[in-house]
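Dear U.,

For the methods section draft, I wanted the exact inputs and outputs in one place so we can describe them consistently. I've listed the two proteins in the order they'll appear in the manuscript figures. Please don't edit the token lines directly; just add comments below if something needs changing.

First protein:
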Amino acid sequence: MKHLIQILSIALIAFTLHAKTLNDMDGHPVILPDQTDHVFGSSPPMNYLLYTLNPDKMIGLNFKARNPNNSADEQFLNKRFLSLPVIGSFHGGGQSINLETLMKYKPQLVLVWQDDMLVQTVAKEIEKTAIPSYLIPFRHINDMPRAFRLAGNAIGESKRGEILAAYSEKIIKDVQKSVSKAKPVRYYYAEGLDGLSTECDSSFHVEAMNFAGGRNVHSCQQSGILGLEKISFETLLAYNPDVIIVQNRAVYNDLITDPMWKSLRALKSGRIYLVPVQPFNWVDRPPSFMRVLGIQWLAHLFHPKEFKADLNQRTKEFYDLFLHVKLSDEQIKNLLGANR
């Protein structure tokens, strides 16, 4: 601990000599490094936000780059990102973060997810160090353009942040306008190994689905930080949703052949869909910048008559702009084919 304090003291002196002041999301001035080349995201949404702004400025990850909720590989992501060390997370579910370990990577700034249920705990932990932190709003879909601008300015990537923000605003307005007069589609979000874990209707985990013109059949108060509320099949049968969105491929494969689930309206009409996860989940876990594409995919599923955009072209645009990847027609087919 004494060694850590010495490191913090040196870092604080160096930081105050080269600093700039930016206003945070509430308009309050925050002192940040003038030049930022080593940044850490306190949560996966912030890590992925950093990736699309400038992956070369990332010092590490919360969890392994590839995990059960995505399909991260060199097809869509750069090698440096995939080889970044796992520093840890404040959120559990993996390697817990150690402040002394974090300091060894010499971060100049930590981006903190303002809407996170653990934001106060995370902020207090970071306050124990000399690392400046910056709150980024990222829960609501409408927050994303602002998040790109704030984070871009904070890490010295304002031009890139503005490009992503402007594109996101255009897409968000397009989706919002398309579904604004449509009757909300009753959906169920199937999670867990049996598909009987789900989210409450106001959870940030279903933000994209709600925005795209859906209405969650499971109305409740979230019982824990992680969500994943358990229900019985009898409850689901009573809900009898019009659409089912499935998080995991293995579960999706089980559900579409399960005689019991086939009694549900969604399966009878063929409206059960698997969330795309390349390179990151398009919808949730974590709710990342991929939601800019995810809300279009969802609007296409929920309201195909109202949302008439060319999803192939929109997917190609998104991957080019956000991930610097030129998709082939075959890749687009693989990304969207199971859900067309």
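Second protein (the one for the lower panel):
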Amino acid sequence: MKVLVKVCLMLVVAGTIVACTTSPTGRSQLNLFSGSALNSLGAESFAEIKQQEKVSTDRELNAYAQCLADAIIEVLPEEYQGREWEVAVFESDTINAFALPGGYMGFYTGIMRLAENEHQLAAVMGHEIGHVLADHSSERLSTNLLLSGIMVGADIALTDRPPQQRGMIMAGLGLGAQVGVMLPYSRTHESEADEIGLDLMARAGFDPHEAPKLWENMAKISQGAPPELLSTHPSPQTRIRNLSRQIPEVMPLYEARLASAGPANCPRPRSLDQN
């Protein structure tokens, strides 16, 4: 048991040292990984995805994705604006998009078709970039490391218990960590990325009212999804409600953009309606 206490204290101290970092929304964070390490992981992940997925050569789709990316990059904090962002479109029915540390964005044609207009697709990419701005990758890796250390310490402390009892206790600890820590933590990240993304799309000249409509479309195709308690993502209904509540807060940003530079001009290609 002394070993367990020692391990836990070491991890708590390590976490306390770096937990003073805060996300763009003001939430305290645990970050044990440097930006350069995450950027390297982002580059490796992007190269791997490009090898595994079919990269689209459709000029119209690529121009559409690039236009959306450029519009959002323009309103990012200065440290992110200065990066050479690489944007790719993947020919896949997967309903997904992503942004990675280091300056990488990916759009799947599945999500490009589901999003009925450029405003809805901007909500998707604003959300994904929100994960990058809030260092969610570092936070997730840090939490996994912390929990792994606690589990190792617990396993060592239980060496004198009968194997069956030891297995049951470890299984219970693992389930508790998953349902009590990791899943809610993931849902917190998703909700925070929604909040950041809505702010970004408004600043970039995309209509915030379209964000909840995107999730209405998502709700139609997510029948049979697991309960929110056991999901890494908030339910579409929760996201629709939270985004709708936030719209009045970001509308002044959208209206200021309209007055100064007009709306974003990235019309959705008609070819997305032909498949």
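Candidate sentences for the figure legend, describing the second protein: The radius of gyration is 21 Å. Residues 163-203 form the longest helix (41 residues).

Thanks,
Y.
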